[in-house]
Amino acid sequence: MALCMPEPDAGVLARRGAIVAALRRIVPDGVIDDGDCLAPYECDGLTAYRQRPMVVVLPETTAQVAAVLAWCQANGVKVVPRGAGTSLSGGALPLVDGVLLGMARFNRILEVDYPERVAVVQPGVTNLAITRAVEDAGLYYAPDPSSQIACTIGGNVAENSGGVHCLKYGLTSNNVLGVELVTMEGEVLRLGGKGLEPQGLDLLGVVVGSEGLLGVVTEVTVRLLPKPETAKALLIGFSNVESAGQCVAEVIGAGIIPAGMEMMDREAVHAAEAFVGAGYPLDVEALLIVELDGPEAECVHLVGEVERIARANGAVSVRASRDDAERAVFWAGRKAAFPAAGRISPDYYCMDGTIPRRRLPEVLRRMKELSAQFGLGVINVFHAGDGNLHPLILYDANRDGELEQAEAFGAEILKLCVEVGGVLTGEHGVGVEKRDLMPTMFTPVDLAHQQRVKCAFDPSLLLNPGKVFPQLHRCAELGRMHVHGGQLPHPELPRI
What we know:
Blueprint: H1 10-14, H2 16-26, E1 31-32, E2 55-57, H3 62-75, E3 78-82, E4 98-102, E5 109-113, E6 118-121, H4 127-134, E7 139-140, H5 153-159, H6 166-169, E8 176-182, E9 188-192, H7 203-207, E10 216-223, E11 225-226, E12 230-238, H8 241-253, E13 260-265, H9 266-276, E14 286-294, H10 296-312, E15 317-320, H11 324-335, H12 337-341, E16 347-350, E17 353-354, H13 360-374, E18 378-383, E19 388-395, H14 402-419, H15 444-457
Parallel strand pairs: 2-4, 3-4
Antiparallel strand pairs: 1-2, 5-6, 6-10, 7-11, 8-9, 8-10, 12-14, 12-15, 13-14, 13-18, 16-19, 17-19, 18-19
Helix pairs in contact: 8-10, 8-13, 9-11, 13-14
Keywords: FAD, Flavoprotein, Oxidoreductase
Pfam families: FAD-oxidase_C (PF02913), FAD_binding_4 (PF01565)
InterPro entries: FAD-bd_oxidored_4_C, FAD-bd_PCMH, FAD-bd_PCMH-like_sf, FAD-bd_PCMH_sub2, FAD-linked_Oxase-like_C, FAD-linked_OxidoTrans_Type4, Oxid_FAD_bind_N, Vanillyl_alc_oxidase_C-sub2
């Protein structure tokens, strides 16, 4: 499927030399414009789509970010922010007539406030590095995407990332207290802070998960949590997926909120076990990994309750971790499931959709039917506790038409998620991958209101265009009138 992106601006491309020179004056040691050196930036984790940016700029200070954005705003140049490039929805796909603004040099932890249990970090700090910096004090940062060793906190903010422990401890939006944000006009804003309840409009809630469409985050204040006194993980095997799904529903129905509750189907279990050697049972059709944490007495009690519910639903095997090292191995297999898929297929397409937990058996059954229909394999790894699915569609890009088949298969899975009462994404974002499916979930009125928010932050529509919205209207078309410096935008348009 040919991806439609905004038509390159010939006038901007003709000014490339002058643009590069101007950016070098702002960031003398951080501009990349050589063709071969631009290659690492031509895509993110959604490698099926790629194109080289016009130029890459790597600022090091908030002042440089503000100056770059203000200059691009004044000169009509598009900007695509980029973190570590681990996005799986094409959120950081560059534009051939745009500046790719890489935030990798913003890689310092600025402050750890132990009494308040918060840390102030730059957006290029990796997710796992926050926990590593505070673990000696018995603290940690809760959101833990599978890519946490590489993904950055700025990217997590952009996509509202979750992870295996988001069931109990929440997504990025539940663990970020404040950000420093630079608008396209170069204005530096502070939203939220160390306090738990900021005053005024919840602009922080708007920015987290906005996929780089509203501004560039240059600083993040995150919540730190005390490490639980005790944590135990259970490996629970089932002879069929339906029983595993019913077990998930009954655990949550019993008022038990595990720290994490993941499910893997037979194919995923075999791939992960061959890759990691986590000790997974290979004679099951579905495997649940359930982690309970808290005070030791509570943890022991909940482990017993979950085992009881699992046995009542026909579990064929139950194994509890003996210590933290074994618990980590249990999770290592789950977190390595994506790379493990690379050992059994030349290529795979990682999806992301969310459904009501009660519809899980039905959705998995229908995905099997779609797999047969499209002639492509699929393995399933997902956050069972909150219904966030991550099907991996297996294909070979070297075979004509298989990529297109994989995309069509993926689109049907996402439509199915919406059909059963779910949503298009849980944590990967919309980006370009799900952009053209947005009308399956939102009405034109819904999308217009979302685009009005975009216009409020970025009236010239220069930040990360071509993402999220299947058709991005000009602000004037949406009825919004932004007056800047006494001048109306788009003077060529008739005013009614």
